[in-house]
Amino acid sequence: MRNSIPQLVVAAAITLLPALSYAQPPGGGRGGDPEQMLTRQLNMMKEAVGLTDDQEKAIRPILAEQQKKQRELMANGMSDETRAEMQKLQAATKDKVKKVLKDDQLEKYDKFEAERMSRRRGPGGPPPPNN
Q1: 130 to each of 32, 75, 94, 109, how far by Cα in Å?
Q2: pLDDT tens across 1-15, in order?
Q3: Can you tell me the distance from the alpha carbon of 103 to that of 108, in angstroms, rounded to the nearest whole number?
Q4: DSSP string spanning 66-129?
Q5: Does 20 reside within a domain?
């Protein structure tokens, strides 16, 4: 009887360990690899704002550059200075994206960004900045 408990634990571990390796998406973190994240963000923006193909082509490198700079900033960990730099980066990216949009898309974009930020922060988080 005593030998069966350790054998059961070993058998359970052998069975469960392979399943745990699939728990995270490829690329780690919560969003997958950078290209998948970028494509997902663009698809959501395209649906919410009504981007044309030309606008999507113009916005993709803007978002890719933001993504690259965010990774560089976060490589050294999050600090108050890093958070401030990230906020500046987000504001600059929004300004660049808005220059690509038509007047009738700007309100939709602001709403899209506000919803995206509220999902990211979760309930009870601070309100998104008014930019």
Answers
A1: 29, 28, 11, 13
A2: 556 665 655 555 555
A3: 10
A4: HHHHHHHHHTT---HHHHHHHHHHHHHHHHHHHHHS-HHHHHHHHHHHHHHHHHHH-TTPPPPP
A5: no
- 102 backbone dihedrals φ, ψ, rounded to 5°: -85, 160
Give yes or no for a contact between 47 and 111, defined as CB atoms under 8 angstroms apart: no
Q: How far is CA 81 from CA 30, 46, 76, 77, 97, in A?
A: 23, 32, 11, 10, 24
Domain count, the chain: 1
Rounded Cα–Cα distance for residues 88 and 78 (Å): 15
Summarize pLDDT for 54-97 with one digit per residue, the tens: 999 999 999 999 999 998 888 888 888 988 999 999 999 999 99
DSSP 8-state code for residue 48 = I
**Parent domain of 50:** 35-121
**Residue 29, SS3?**
coil
